[in-house]
Amino acid sequence: MGVSVPIVAIVVSFYLVAFLLAVGAERRRSTAAVVPDEYDEKTYCSYATDASTVYGLSAFVLLAVAQALLNGVTKCFCLGRGLMGGRSAKTLAIVFFAFSWASFVAAEACLLAGSARNAYHTKYRANFGIEHLSCATLRKGVFAAGAAITLLAMTTSVIYYWAHSMADTDGWVKHQN
């Protein structure tokens, strides 16, 4: 199996769209304000749009699809014949396989935790002047970290695919006339 340009293009496009969605999620994080209730002497938290939760979950799904597609094509070292390449090609493929999965898990954790925390809205109410009401919101940078790690996952996954294809064919690619 040689490097397939359509597979690389599809996987990279999934990763880039996931990156853009994660950046969009960071920019559209929920904000909260303490608002007085118009009917009684209490205040409550009023939250702005919840779009970043949807963006974060969409990035989560696209990242998972890209990782599944790439590992399905390479058979994830579990199925198929063994790698034929020299020791350096096999070692490179194994190292980037591990880095690919580690960065994938880290990016998924940031995106899922950010989406879950952003979707959480407190329902606390307080009387005027009795206690300070703090509205829980997502910390700045969680989705940005997910976006950055998504780019790292894309890079390591493409290098893993390239190294796996080189080790799989022992560097030889069948040419068609």
UniProtKB/TrEMBL annotation:
Keyword Hydrolase belongs to the record: no
Gene Ontology CC: one annotated term: endomembrane system
Record-linked InterPro entries: DEAL/Modifying_wall_lignin1/2, DESIGUAL
Main location: membrane
Organism: Genlisea aurea
UniProt keyword Plastid present: no
Protein name, per record: Fiber protein Fb34
UniProt keyword list: Membrane, Signal, Transmembrane, Transmembrane helix
The family this protein is said to belong to: Belongs to the DESIGUAL family.
TM segment ranges: 6-25, 54-73, 93-120, 141-163
UniProt topology in membrane: Multi-pass membrane protein
Subcellular location: Endomembrane system
PANTHER family xrefs: OS07G0462200 PROTEIN-RELATED
Pfam families: DUF1218
